[in-house]
Structures are given as C-alpha cells and as structure tokens.
C-alpha cells in the first residue's frame, strides 16, 4: 500500500507553521509511526533535501495553470497571494469528481524516471487529483522549494526519540543508507541488523565538548589533561577511502560541493576531525572570510583563490579501515601525527597541543591569546576514548572572555513555545550621531526572573506594535556580550556580532550613555 | 406600467443604503431615525438609532453588546418571512446563514425588488438558519472573499485537523483565536457535532454571547471559564489537552500564562493563504469562515437570477469582472465603514524591524 500525498502535505504544513523544536520533533515522530514504507523514508528525504530528481521550472507550472484559468483572475490572485506555487495551488480548478490522490512514493518514482517532456502532463494529472494542501506540496516538491525548517540533524533526533535508540547510532546508520532508508527503519523497528557503513565515506557522529565553568577547573591537571587551541572556524569531518570522499559538517551535512579543493586534497584513506578555516600563508583569516564560502552551492575558482580553505586537525577516528575511536586520546594523537607524516595531504595541518605545567598558566594563555582566529582553549582528558555526543567530564571548551558593549533596547518580539507569551527576543542598537542603529538580536543570557522583568518593561514602554513585534521607548540599556565583531553588508550598521547574548540589564544607566557605534567598529578583528 | 429600477428608489448616502419611499436605512454607518439591521456585527449594527427593525435574535444581540439604551430608541422584532408594509414598500427578512439572527432584507416597491443580503454564506451552520435565495432585480452582496483563491474547505474537515493536533500534542493546550459573535459559537457547535464532549474553556470576553446563544435556543454543551493561575509567578499552567477559545491575539498576552504551552490556532477565511498565516505566527490555521467564498458568491448571483449586482465592500474588482463575463451587470457601492468585518479579522502582520545577527 502506498501512503497518500495528502498526509505528506499535512506534515509539511504543520512543520512550516511550527516554530518550537519539540513540536517539530513530535510531528516527525508521528510521521515515522503512522506512515508506511517507503513513503515515510521518501517524505523524510524530501524534507531534509536528500531527494534527487530534476526539478521543474516555475515557468512550466505557470504555463499549466494559464491554460486552465482566466488571465485577469490569475493576475489579481497572484498579485494578492504573492507566491507562484501557492497561487497555483489555490487557483487550480479541480474537476467535479477527481480520481483518488496519488501516493507520495508513486509521485517521486515517476519523477525520477520521467523524461522532461512528459513532466507537465503528469503534473497536471496529479494536480487534478489533489486538494489545496496537496497541490502546494506537489508544486514545492517539483520546483525544489520545500523549506520547512527541519534539518537532517533534527530528523535524526526525531528518529532516535521515536525508536528509543541513541542518536549517535542513528546518525551512523542513517549515513549508511539511501532514501527511502528501508534498512534503517527495519533496524529501528527491530526487524533487521544495524546498517553498517563498512568503508563507505559516511559521517561518524562527532565528540563534543562541554563549556567549562569556574568550578570545573579543579579537576583539570597537566598529568590527566591535554590542552589545544579552539580555532574559530567550523568543525568538520573528512572521510576518504576507496569508495569515495566526503567533507561533513558537525551535524552531518555534506559540505563536499562547497569545498572542492579540500576534497581534492584528501589523498588518504581514513576519517579525521578538525576545523575548517580560511588560511593564507599559514595565518588563519577571520571567521567572516570563511562565511563567504559557506552556504554556497557553487564555488568559483576565484572564490577558492580569494578565500583558500584548509583543515586544521584535532583528531583521528579511522586509519584506513581501522577504527581508532576506542583508543585513548594520547594514543590517537600519536596516530594522527604519524598519519599526517605518512600522507602529508595538502591543505591539512596539525593543531598543536598547548603545553602547560599548571592550570594558572592556561588561564593566562587563554586571556592573552589575541589572535583573532582563536576562540579559546579545549581541554581533553588524556585517557578519553572518542565518544560520540557531549559526554560530560571528557572534553571541555574554555572560551575566551567575551567582548561587551552597552546597547539600547529598540524592539522586542514574542518568543515561541513556552515563551510565546513573553517578549523574549530583543533587538538592540548603538548610537550613531543622534540616531540609534540596530546592531544585533539576542534571546538568551538572562535568567527567568530577568525575563519576567524584561517582559513587563516591554509591555509598559511600547510605542508601536507590529504583530508579534513591539517597538519600545529608547530608554533601557542592556549590556550585550559577544564573541567577535565583524563587518557585514547585510546590516544597516555595517557590523555584525557573533553569538550576542544579554549579560546584564543596566536599568541604572541612562540611554544617552550607552555606547556609540564606533566602539563596536573598533572591536572588529579583536575578539 | 413598467417597474421602476431600484436605483430610482434606493440611494447610496454617506450614512449607507437608504430606501427613499420607506424612509429607512439598511445597516447605516451612523445613527439615523429608522434603521433595518441585517445582523449584530459591529460594522452593520451601530448604536444610537431612534427606531430599529431586525430579527428578535439580532435585537437581543444588540442589547447584549451595546446595552439596552443604545440598541435603539424603539426596537421592533420581525419574524423571518413575515411581510411588513411601510409607505407602500413591502419589507421581508429572509435567513442569510451568516450568524444567529442574520437576515437578508428584501424590499419591494411598485413591482421592483431588491435584496440586501448583508453578510452571508451558503455552507451549513448549526447555529443559524440557512441562506435562502430570493429572485430579484438587484442583488446587493458583500465581496469579502471575492478572489478565486478563496475556496473554503468543508468546516468538518478543519475540525478534524484540530482534533488530530490535540491527539498529537496531548501535553499542550489548543487556543483558538476567534471573535465573540458567531465564529466562537459555530466552532463550539462544530466541535460538538464532531463528538467533542469535554468542557470547552472560554476567555472572559466570549462568555456573555455564548450564554445569550444558549438562551436563544442554540445548545453549546458544557462551557467553563479559563481558571486563573493557581500560584502567582509559578509556572503551573494548565488545561493540557483541552480546547480554549479566546479573542484573537489573547494568546500573546500575559493571560495565556494560565495555559500549558499553548498551540496558537486561529479560524478565519483569510488563513487559506498560508503565507499570511505564517506571518502572523499562527501554528494551526483553520480555514473556517462565516462569509461566502468565491464559488458561493458566483453561485448566489446566479441563484437569485438578478440582472444586476451591487457590491458593498471587499474585492469588488475581481467579482465585478467575473460577473461581467457571465452577463451580469455589477456596480461597486464603496460603502463607508465596511470591510473590517470583526468576525474575520486577524492580528496584524509583523514587519521586519531589525536585522537578525
Ligand atoms: Zn458580519
Ligand atoms: Zn460585514
């Protein structure tokens, strides 16, 4: 039996409207539990963008609907709705007695096989058989416009919650399967063995660190711990072997296409863990440079030349087919050094250990490390195996003290989920002459008690409302801390903050004494 | 003798549509001497008229909302279908299917007939009598949803989506933003039809009109006020798995802290356009409306066989065009004070005030 496209349309619609992470997880769990194979896996792949078929151009869809509607009414409708896919879904004249709707799996299978010329007729037939939500889902599916805010990472978390398996195991098994993930579902429902990647360049879940609190310092000692720099790039995993090469992000997204020069340099067989950086003559460029390369599907030779990428290695998971993850950190470190010496791949280098005789020495090094590409220190237990996930007490991240500016609250927006009755997202600005320019947005850093106070303040000082957003009197100063300042063409102020959060409410300070934009500008490149 | 065209005896004035020989306004936007009121929504029923003619239900709704002293100096109830003669004009009220008490006003003078339909819908509604088409020379219609993108799905299906969501999120409370007159009671009645027998919880602003509906013979089942928070300041919100009805936007006020992680729902015909629902932060949009959709507007124009249609408010351009292609003459009246139908309003959309860092 094939599941209906209507059920998939319903899932898409709920995901699109749902803001909360927990609610999205609940929707996905319900999808896995209620849908038959292969539809549930196909739906999953469609949402996470892992489905591969040639997509249709919006112009083709438009031509289909033009044959069936009055041009004047189409124009008035399109003008009102503003989105072509949705206009088509709403306007499509359904026949009086439609045939039953097509199944999701049938639709995807047909699209994968169909010659381009026969796609319009197939689409028209399906559109006749669907209701509005189904039509919208179909048009978004074939035009490649499915964006519902559910990443692969979220989907794998939902699979783990639904099946009761650890998310790290799900991650690994996921990457060993292709849509519609039948062996994965067989395993999760207890009918089959865990899918094994065996040599394929699949993603292995990363080992993650806990933020170090003052109290945790007591447990750190040079005999039991190793220290290394925490570089300000993005964590990646490079997998290479006889069956292919992949560059994975921390959450298991495939970055290979965006960094072809890295993939080309992976002249080895194994799995290594490191930081992706823009590196010029051995000097790490600011994070903003790397950002120029991220989120780009196509990368030009010029981009590669202007923003040359490299990987600085922290760890090794596999040497050839040999799984090194059970080894202690010190042993893996020795293997990593040997691995690099043997293969000497271009664009890969070793992140050095930071030697220390006592913890106070580390504190000084952390405080005085002014290279802008360093986010802080990593502290790792010398005897720790490579364990997927964030296991407490093995790896610590000890970030550098943040930068800070005093900003003025400008707008507040209602939060989501449990915070939906609170104004919990704050946009703040700095002075430029007589005017305030927004410089950032934060929704964390404050306590629950402070949230209640801020919410009350916002309600009592509102000057304008725009739906969930309130503009407030420019009267409240917030001390905002952040990890780095960088130039940004997307912001009116020309500046952006990295990881801003509210450190303190400065109700005592007059707004006129908040910082000026120049103060933030001077922090660019400091961090 | 040929009958006079309705535009010789029905005039569009700044105060609204005026029947000259009878000396009476229909749904006037300001206080007048004599008014016929189609139904109780505030864009049709204004306070302060000297004499008011309407159905007994509409008069009761006006008294409940405005207070007896502002709901008309004298009130005269008209039974549906019973004719009344004023200076040679025969007046009848005929069900409009919009909300309890809603009526079309049928006026006949010297063999010429005009039907002023007020607001109406053709879909069944357990809380009010169904629309009856009356053949006429001129049909006066609203055009709230006069675009072919507005086709309301069956309301029962939308209720099923709500019930499915309650099954999926048993630990959360579903809050539906609705206006006090009409939509609230129709939703309750639809939920009862779908077998929802649990108490339905009401925001204080909705209680009076629900009680009035019950006293006028519309059974709504068990209704309870939303209880206040048990302990001040403690996150001990309640009503998980329950349905709460509240005015639109109430779920963004501190009142909603009484509720367990509320799922924000809304019921309106505007929600058919999903992009708009998303802009307003609604998690579960229910496309349920008390106004005619595109197909109903066209079907009604054809059912009443009128050669001419006057459009009071809404998207008159698309409707006038579509009627023209069917050989029906259309005229936009541009009546003042209409178009903000309280039963369909939504919280306003948010602009982008500032960049996200
Ligand atoms: Zn109305
Ligand atoms: Zn109205």
TrEMBL record, chain A:
Catalytic activity: ATP + (deoxyribonucleotide)n-3'-hydroxyl + 5'-phospho-(deoxyribonucleotide)m = (deoxyribonucleotide)n+m + AMP + diphosphate
Enzyme's top EC category: ligase
Alphabetized UniProt keyword annotations: ATP-binding, Cell cycle, Cell division, DNA damage, DNA recombination, DNA repair, DNA replication, Ligase, Magnesium, Metal-binding, Nucleotide-binding
Gene Ontology BP annotations: cell division; DNA recombination; DNA repair; DNA replication
Alphabetized InterPro entries for the sequence: ATP-dep_DNA_ligase, ATP_dep_DNA_lig_pp_1105_fam, DNA_ligase_ATP-dep_C, DNA_ligase_ATP-dep_cent, DNA_ligase_ATP-dep_CS, DNA_ligase_N_sf, NA-bd_OB-fold
EC number: 6.5.1.1
Organism domain of life: Bacteria
Keyword Iron part of the UniProt annotation: no
GO MF annotations, alphabetized: ATP binding; DNA binding; DNA ligase (ATP) activity; metal ion binding
SUPFAM superfamilies named in the record: DNA ligase/mRNA capping enzyme, catalytic domain, Nucleic acid-binding proteins
Pfam families for this protein: DNA_ligase_A_C, DNA_ligase_A_M
Domain (ATP-dependent DNA ligase family profile): residue spans on this chain: 302-432
Protein name: DNA ligase (ATP)
Native source organism of the sequence: Humitalea rosea
Automatic annotation (TrEMBL), chain B:
GO-annotated molecular function: RNA endonuclease activity
SUPFAM superfamilies referenced in this protein's UniProt entry, alphabetically: Metallo-hydrolase/oxidoreductase
Species of provenance: Humitalea rosea
Lineage: Bacteria, Pseudomonadati, Pseudomonadota, Alphaproteobacteria, Acetobacterales
InterPro entries on file: MBL (IPR050698), RibonucZ/Hydroxyglut_hydro (IPR036866), Xnuc_lig_assoc (IPR026360)
Protein name per its UniProtKB record: Putative mRNA 3-end processing factor
